[in-house]
Design goal:
The structure is a single chain. By secondary structure, the protein is mostly beta strands. The chain folds into 2 domains: 157 residues, Immunoglobulin-like, CATH 2.60.40.10; 147 residues, Chondroitinase Ac, Chain A, domain 3, CATH 2.60.220. It is 1% helix and 45% strand. It has 1 helix and 23 strands. Strands 1-2-4-10-7-6 form a 6-stranded antiparallel beta sheet, with no helix packed on it. A 6-stranded mixed beta sheet has the order 3-12-11-5-9-8, with no helix packed on it. Strands 13-16-17-23-19-20 form a 6-stranded antiparallel beta sheet, with no helix packed on it. The longest helix has 4 residues.
């Protein structure tokens, strides 16, 4: 099995919130409106409009896969703010904006390589919400940079001190036969299997996850780079498979783990004798462990034998760690 170092792909911040922006004079001092108030605009990824203003959060991602940032905009002032505009270059560092969705995403349009989100005037306490989906184009540090501006009725591109910056970072993992991190847009179901672009034909274990559709989209991380140990009275074989789906939230109706073991990895193990441990729960081998109904979990669907090995299909109600045993 190809061995690579296990990578943790961590977004640059836990929440997206656009900064409490204040209207500035050209000299950099605060310029309050004539009524004595100060105008504020909050943009970011915290749905409570509180944390990390000006910082954009990106979900973990591997090269060739997708990441998402949720953007929340709120006029936290007590008066209307005019011509609120956010802009992002479509081509970013190791990332490209590929799509947008969400309740107010219709105000965001890519023109001449720039994604412009023009929300017009926002009344006091008004909110806008949208998400950007980006494709990772290169390994290493990835960044998403943008700007936002308000109270500029004639120049949406800014040009004065009312322009405020937005930024987010993520470490983009290299393509691998053992690990993958991605985001699936709302309503998309998919079987995800790590691949470094070579089809990984020499890999003794190919571990994947069939993910059902989710109305809010799905973040997924998979890794099978660690030897399986700790199978109690049974003997572990192959590598453990670790998966994180939507940070451990319940999955409906279930996840299906798809794990191929080559003939070399199986050795003299009879497929009828293969059981699995999922986070300490034993999923028995043979007929005892077969799924008896369409909604059953912690059970196995019939395995598939090929010339190179055997593929097992295991249903579980959540993500976690799964290990083959006999």
């Amino acid at each position: 099995m190809q061995r690579t170092s296990k990578r943790r792909l961590v977004g640059g911040a836990t929440g997206l919130l656009l900064i409490g922006a204040t209207l500035l004079s050209t000299g950099g001092a605060l310029a309050a409106p004539s009524d004595g108030t100060t105008r504020h605009l909050y943009v970011g990824s915290d749905s409570n409009f509180v944390l990390n203003p000006g910082i954009l959060s990106l979900t973990p991602v591997s090269v060739g896969q997708s990441t998402v940032t949720n953007v929340y905009v709120k006029n936290v002032d007590n008066q209307t703010l005019n011509h609120v505009v956010l802009t992002f270059d479509v081509a970013q560092t190791n990332l490209v904006i590929a799509d947008k969705y969400g309740p107010n995403s219709g105000s965001c349009n890519p023109v001449a390589g720039v994604m412009t989100c023009d929300f017009g005037s926002l009344k006091a306490r008004a909110e806008r919400r949208f998400s950007l989906v980006l494709t990772a184009t290169g390994a290493g540090d990835g960044s998403l940079d943008g700007t936002f501006v308000f109270n500029e009725s004639t120049n949406p591109n800014g040009g004065n001190t009312q322009i405020n910056t937005l930024e987010g970072t993520v470490t983009v993992g290299a393509a691998s036969c053992d690990s993958l991190a991605t985001f699936l847009p709302p309503g998309i179901a998919k079987t995800l299997v790590p691949d470094d672009g070579t089809a990984c034909s020499g890999d003794g274990q190919r571990s994947g996850l069939k993910v059902p559709p989710n109305a809010n989209g799905t973040t997924v991380e998979i890794d099978d780079d660690t030897l399986a140990v700790g199978c109690g009275s049974l003997a572990c074989f192959g590598n453990a498979v670790s998966a994180t789906v939507n940070n451990g939230d319940p999955v409906s109706p279930y996840l299906t783990w798809q794990i191929f073991y080559s003939n070399d990895v199986l050795g003299n193990i009879n497929p009828k004798q293969v059981a699995f441990f999922h986070d300490g729960t034993l999923i028995p081998a043979g007929n005892k462990g077969l799924c008896k109904t369409a909604s059953a979990v912690n059970c196995q669907d019939p395995y598939l034998v090929s010339s190179g090995g055997v593929t097992f299909f295991v249903r579980t109600p959540s993500n976690g760690l799964i290990k083959g045993a006999h």
